[in-house]
Design goal:
Layout lengths: L3 E7 L8 E2 L1 H12 L5 H17 L6 H13 L2 H12 L4 H9 L11 E6 L4 E6 L1 H10 L16 E4 L6 E2 L4 E7 L6 H9 L1 E4 L9 E8 L1
Helix pairs in contact: 2-3, 4-5
């Protein structure tokens, strides 16, 4: 078939970015398209985009492609292209404009309640269990177990700490956004336990583990 393929193996020992949940991830995506996303997510975008530009012969090297990505994410062209895509997909132009250039949260479903999750002890963040966080969000409506279940796009998590950060006891490590009038406290315990703290900091790890090229 002659299709050139490339696999980027990236580290997934902790969530990438700061948000989990449908509306919150859109909010974070808009921030990334403005060049204001969290550093780990911005790095991943630059890597993927840089490789794609090099593979399609738009640039001569991955590094040049990464520079082009940074330019498009900071000069507004990426965000404007996203707005054009929304309009082409039948999103009202005024809503697309507000989402991209106005009050983003005004056009996204947002949760009625939020609760701070605090650290149980002090130490360096060694691991953030993304699966536990995903399961809690799923239980609160961010995902579905069966095809006929409704999704609550407002449910989600904002992470306030990253792997390698030092946190004191009772530091707010994340914020849970939900619409439950009677929230099950077991979810809060699970979220507290999802962050593993250690006494000694470890060397920062590169997000890119390896690259595999092949053809179909």
């Amino acid at each position: 078939m002659g299709i050139e393929c490339r696999v980027l193996m990236t580290r997934m020992s902790a969530p990438i970015g700061n948000y989990v949940g449908n509306s919150l991830e859109i909010l974070e995506s808009i921030n990334c398209l403005k060049g204001k996303g969290p550093s780990d997510l911005q790095t991943l975008l630059e890597l993927i985009g840089g490789h794609l530009l090099q593979m399609t012969h738009k640039v001569s090297s991955v590094n040049e492609g990464r520079k082009r990505m940074v330019e498009s994410l900071t000069n507004g062209t990426a965000l404007e292209k996203f707005k054009q895509m929304l309009v082409e997909l039948s999103v009202n132009e005024s809503i697309a404009h507000e989402l991209c250039y106005g009050n983003t949260t005004a056009v996204l479903p947002m949760a009625k309640y939020k609760i701070e999750i605090k650290s149980l002890t002090s130490g360096y963040v060694n691991n953030i269990n993304g699966m536990t966080i995903a399961k809690v969000c799923n239980k609160l409506g961010a995902g579905r177990q069966f095809s006929n279940q409704a999704i609550d796009p407002a449910v989600g998590i904002r992470l306030l700490v990253k792997k390698g950060n030092y946190v004191e006891i009772d530091t707010v490590s994340m914020i849970l956004y939900h619409n439950e009038t009677d929230l099950n406290e077991s979810y809060l315990i699970l979220l507290q336990q999802s962050i593993e703290l250690v006494n000694e900091i470890k060397e920062p790890e590169d997000i890119l583990l390896g690259v595999i090229d092949y053809s179909l």
